[in-house]
Amino acid sequence: MQKPYQMKQAQVLVQQVKNQMIQRLDYDGEELFLQAYTFFKENTFDTKIVKLIQPYSGLPEQTLLFLQHLKCWTDKCGEPPVNSQAQTTISGVEKTIWEYLRALSRTCSTEVAR
């Protein structure tokens, strides 16, 4: 059970997040905030699970950024030879990240549909 001052602090933080989303995304920010707020109000997550997921939460973005840097490098230096280790690795990373993002999308849409 939260104490009154903890509830007040939580409300202040929620309002700050809402204000920042509205400031950055205008009308869409308010709509997205309300959807996310409703989702997290209705669904609770075990703290252990959240702590397990947290280190991996930025992995797709970091990998996509890596792929962008790799594309810039290949644009500058040329494509690696066909069937080379570099070409196979690039293809494998691209395939893995897109499969991961598709699975994540399916999981999220399934959870939202519940």
Description of the structure:
This protein has 114 residues and is mainly α. The protein has two domains: 1-44; 47-114. The chain contains five helices and no strands. The protein has helices spanning 4-25, 27-42, 47-53, 59-77, 85-113. The relative contact order is 0.06.
What is this entry, summarized?
This protein is mainly alpha-helical and 114 residues long.
Query: Terminal Cα separation, in Å?
Result: 27 Å
Low-confidence parts: none
Q: Label the overall shape.
A: elongated
Largest sheet report: none
DSSP summary, beta strand count: 0
The helix/strand order is: HHHHH
Number of domains: 2
Radius of gyration, in angstroms, nearest whole number: 20 Å
Mean pLDDT figure: 79
Helicity level, as a percent range? over 70%
Number of helices: 5
Determine the strand fraction and express it as a percent band.
under 5%
Structural class: mainly alpha
How are the SSEs placed, and which strands pair?
Elements: H1 4-25, H2 27-42, H3 47-53, H4 59-77, H5 85-113
